[in-house]
Amino acid sequence: MASKDVVSFIKLFSVVTWEKIAFVRRQKGLKFHEVTATQNLLFQFRLLAEANPSGVIMYEADSEKTNGNDIELYIKINGRYIFFACQAKIVYDKSSARRPDTYDSIKHLINKKTPNPEEQIESLLRYAKRKGGIPIYLFYNYCADQKTVNDIVQSSSENIEVYGCSYVDARSLIGNYYSINDWHTIPTFRSLHIQQAKPFYKLFETMELSDTSINLRDMLRSANLENTDDNLTQYERPFDEDGNNWVSTNEALPRRQKSRKKSQEGTEDAGFAPRYRLVINDLQIDSPLAQWLFL
Fold first, then answer.
1. Would you say 173 and 187 are in contact if contact means Cβ atoms under 8 Å apart?
2. What is the pTM of this model?
């Protein structure tokens, strides 16, 4: 049986995501959207929270103006929490993309009905900076191009399937791909994963490597989070002074709209607005329920 920890869980989720996208894109009439992958990820974290309630805590914002693809992530490193603002994007296949294996939805204009529309990344960067955190894109991936697969495997020594869920520091895209409210180059799976993007589980390995003798910024740089700066905040507890009332998923929300779909669509147009918060206190999962997560 596989190791029962968050790193192994993320690896499993990534492999399953890679295989799901591969299956769907080989079958006529099937679709797999980024919101589906995000819901799968959140549901699995919900199971982790049940399996290890002190190690993994999940919250939902008591607000109608949220977007289910936006996530707050707090990881406890050396006794303090580091905040990540996460926005999910899925790779597009050849038939639906401008070019093969691109992240077309990364180019997304918000506040379109206002005098000052802007690209969605600006809202992500601003939100993370306001809270002293790190803005990252979560990518859901599959690539059928064998040359790209071989090159990534050779350069990383990883099984390609663990790239089913990957991440990149959003600030590292400025310059090569994005500048001043304009995506002059849309990132591709190949261009990001040969050098910049890493498998999502690598983000959680920083906890395994946590050691008070290791400089935090050196630790984060090892996870390809190169652009950390003096704005980085280390929290004693998850930040909650943001206007949302965060409710544990073990509790019922005080009120719910009959339909969130309309409000989610409107909020997505208004910028980064996370609906869920994940707090990771401990990597180990010591619970009978955990055995079902790692079969």
1. yes
2. 0.88
pLDDT in tens, 159-185: 999 999 999 999 999 989 999 889 999
Q: What is the pLDDT of residues 72-122, one digit of tens each?
A: 999 988 888 999 999 999 999 865 555 678 999 999 988 888 888 899 999
Q: For residues 274 and 42, is the Cβ–Cβ distance under 8 A?
A: no
Contact 52, 282 (CB under 8 A): yes
Asked whether the predicted pLDDT for residue 284 surpasses 50, the reply is yes
Q: What is the C-alpha to C-alpha distance for residues 284 and 276, in angstroms, rounded to an integer?
A: 22
DSSP 118-131: EEHHHHHHHHHHHT
Which 8-state DSSP code applies to residue 183?
A: B
Domains of the chain: total: 1
67 is in which domain, residue-wise? 6-293
**Both tokens assigned to 215:** 């400089």
| Residue 1 placed within a domain | no
Which residue in this structure is represented by tokens 């002074």? Answer: 241
In a domain, 53, yes or no: yes
| Domain assignment of residue 91, yes or no | yes
Ranges of beta strands (E only) in the chain are 56-61, 67-77, 80-90, 109-110, 118-119, 134-140, 165-169, 198-199, 246-248, 274-280
Note the pLDDT of residue 260: 43
216 is a domain residue:
yes
Average pLDDT of the residues in 187-194: 93
Q: How far apart are CA 99 and CA 33, in angstroms?
A: 18
Give the whole-angstrom CA distance, residue 139 versus residue 70. Answer: 12
| Residue 72 per-residue DSSP state | E
Q: How far is CA 194 from CA 152, 174, 183, 265, in A?
A: 6, 17, 20, 33
- Confidence tier at 249 by pLDDT (50, 70, 90): confident
